[in-house]
Known about the structure:
This protein has helices at 58-65, 88-94, 99-110, 119-138, and strands at residues 2-5, 22-28, 32-36, 42-46, 50-53. The protein has a 5-stranded antiparallel β-sheet with strand order 4-3-2-1-5, with no helix packed on it. Helix 3 (99-110) packs antiparallel against helix 4. A hairpin with a 3-residue loop joins strand 2 (22-28) and strand 3 (32-36). The protein is of the alpha+beta class.
Amino acid sequence: MEVLITNCSDSSYWYSSHFGEAFEVIKEDSDMYWVRDHDGFRNVIMKKDAVPLSEDLLYSSLAAESKASTSDGSTAEYYELPAKATQLQHLISVKDMNAQIGEVFRTCYRYGECSHSDKLREAKKIAFYAAAEIERLSNED
């Protein structure tokens, strides 16, 4: 079994920069997955920060459904939700969003509804991650 990093509840965790990556599970405890990281070391991932993947899970089928399409002006298929998408994480995976864009997407979706964050803080978070993505893209040259 593999798990996909969908969150990082503490920035000091080793996987804080591995959002959206999958890791093979070696062992499972009640609140964590033991995995082998990309360097071959054993590490743990908190269960609240990952989702299990299986070979038949929807990520591969959703990605196949999400091919680039053009609109004839009467429809816009790229606005339709994939059939098996039931969570924001499914859409983030299907659209192959990186960590910055995923954070913007999630924050926009919950805008004004998060108990620990007011709208100003959330707007600043959106701006921060958008600026980080702009910087990343600018440095690709």
